[in-house]
Amino acid sequence: GSGDWLVGKLYSAAAAAGWAGVQLFFVLSGFLITGILLDTRHVPGRARRFYVRRTLRIFPLYFAVLACTVLAAITLGSGQAWGSDVVHRQWSYWLYLSNWFNPETHGIPLLSHVWSLAVEEQFYLLWPLIVWRLTPERLRTLSLALVIAGPFVRYAMHVAGLPSSALYAHTLARVDALVLGALLAIVVR
């Protein structure tokens, strides 16, 4: 009836707005990480401490889930298309590169949601080196430039014929949200 139609429409609207939640997640992440990086920029051993904390926070659970998925594919999916697909695509997940190599198909179905972790880990790998190297003024200028460039990067990716899923999941397509958060952290400090 009409109630089912309304529930369906509300669900579709909420699902379509999911991108906003992901963007907000990236903005908050950029804000928090950049704040930590700025607050510790002159602390001895900052790089080791930062990377060890990030690794201990995310890697154990992520790699355990990935190992279970691959093990299930090998044991339960042997000889089946999904099993060989998992075994074939697993390398990009172990290296946090699934968002670059599997965006068209969302890669391994059970792990289709971890593309955002790949974006985060790529950001965590490079952003600290930039924050620690630049003065706050230059970091603010770079962040503003990256925020402005974001829509143009997505447009260029679209013109280049990349699928919409790539425009959603590639790190370059999300860097503006991450550095918008970084810019806010710089301004607040």
Helical content band:
over 70%
One letter per element, helices H and strands E, the order comes to: HHHHHHHHH
Total number of helical segments? 9
Task: Give the mean pLDDT.
Answer: 89
How far do the termini sit from each other?
55 Å
Given as residue ranges, the uncertain stretches (5+ residues, pLDDT < 50) are none
Which radius of gyration do the C-alpha atoms yield? 19 Å
Strand content: under 5%
Short descriptors:
single chain, 189 residues, mainly alpha, 9 helices, globular
Give the gist of this structure.
The chain is mainly α and 189 residues long. The chain is 81% helix and 0% strand.
How would you characterize this protein structure?
It is a single chain. By secondary structure, the protein is mostly helical. The chain has helices at 2-16, 18-39, 46-76, 81-94, 98-101, 115-133, 136-159, 164-169, 171-188. Helix 6 (115-133) packs across helix 9 (171-188). The mean pLDDT is 89.
